[in-house]
Every structure is written in C-alpha cells, then in structure tokens.
Amino acid sequence: MKKVLIFYCVLFSLQGFSQTDWQAFKKLSCAEKTWIIFHPFKAKKAFKISKEAQRVSDSIAKTPLLDGDKRSGQVDAFRHAYWMARLHQEIGKNAALKLGKAHEKSNYQQYKKGQLEYGEVPDKISSEMDLFNNTVGVTYTEKGIPYPKNGLIYRIVNGILAGNYKVIKKDKKRNYVTCDDQIISQKDLKGKWKNEKCLINSN
C-alpha cells in the first residue's frame, strides 16, 4: 500500500509536464529519482526552478558581469548558487541541499559511464566545487519569503566577485592548471575521477 501511495504521489507531482520535461525526467539518475520519491509534492517546483536557474545562468554568461565560463568558472558557481537560493525559497533548505547532493551523486554515475556534462566528463573536484557553492547559495533566501529576482542575481554576482564561492583554476586560455600553474594535459584528465585540478576562491 505504501509503495502504491508513493507511486501516485509522484504521478500527481509531475502532472502537467511537457513531453520534453518527461524526457528529462527519464534521464535522471537513481539518486535524483529517489529524491523525488521522498519529496513528491516538491518535485514539480524543483524541476521548474532547475530550468529557471539554467535560463538565468545562460543569460548571465552573455553579459560582462562574470567570466562567461559555464564549466567550473564563475557562471557555473552562479548557476548552483541561484538554483539553491530559489529552491530554499520554494521547498526549504534541507530538501534543497539533499537535491544538490543527489545531483552530485548522478555526476559520479555520469563519470563512470563516460557521459558528458557541459562538454566534459564530471570529476571529483567539480563535485566538491558544486557542493561548496550549494551551501553558500542557500544562505541568500528563506523559505516562503519573497525576494526580488534581480536583487538575488546581483547579490550572488557580488558574492562571487568578492571570492565567497569556489571555482577551478584555469589559465587565460581556459586550460585547467594545477595549484602551481602547470597546465594539466587532457591525457592526465581523461577517465580520472581524481586529478590535479585546483579549487580556488571565485574572485
């Protein structure tokens, strides 16, 4: 009976999804689907906010506000912070952070399968960066309390420029480098969950 109830809760929470949304849902990892099972009534809001965070970060990438780097750079940090801030507003802090952790677990599954995220195979240090930025992002809002989105965007941008977030170190040509500024070759990155990438402050 409990399994049947959970099944119908999940179906109810996903009512109104488009065909594209359903395709995206099917691609979620086991960890993310498990989160949905335990948070069926929050899933629809979370899905909409995830798409909103992607749209907003794509727009930010086209401006001179940040470095334009969607993978391991300031725009990546922005996306995670905005995502968590908005999730905290709509579904609460704990549920937001648990979804963030589920997403990082899915990145490890992507790594094992050799699947790409933003053109690269995920790795350990990228997950560490994302989890750190998630924990900062949730501090910008409170559940159920309205906050102007433009104000939220600029608070996060200012936080990134102040160095409150983490990014992965690169040279001016966006090659990954070690903490000693040595370029890391693609050979040394390919197929490795752990590598010599360097996590630094976002400024």
Write up what this structure looks like:
This protein has 203 residues and is mainly α. It has one domain (45-201). The chain has helices at 2-13, 19-26, 30-38, 43-61, 74-91, 93-113, 124-137, 149-161, 186-189, and strands at residues 166-168, 199-201. Helix 6 packs antiparallel against helix 7. The longest helix is centred in the middle third of the chain and has 21 residues, at 93-113. It is globular. The termini are far apart.
Uncertain ranges: 1-9
Order of helices and strands: HHHHHHHHEHE
Mean of the pLDDT scores?
85
Question: In what range is the share of β-strand residues?
Answer: under 5%
Q: How many beta-strand segments?
A: 2
Computed CA radius of gyration, to the nearest angstrom:
18 Å
Main sheet characteristics: 2 strands, antiparallel
Write the layout of secondary structure elements.
Blueprint lengths: L1 H12 L5 H8 L3 H9 L4 H19 L12 H18 L1 H21 L10 H14 L11 H13 L4 E3 L17 H4 L9 E3 L2
Antiparallel strand pairs: 1-2
Helix pairs in contact: 3-6, 4-5, 5-6, 5-7, 5-8, 6-7
Q: How would you briefly describe this protein structure?
A:
With 203 residues, this protein is an all-alpha fold. The chain contains nine helices and two strands; from the N terminus they run H-H-H-H-H-H-H-H-E-H-E. It has one domain.
Features:
two-stranded antiparallel sheet; mainly alpha; disordered N terminus; 9 helices
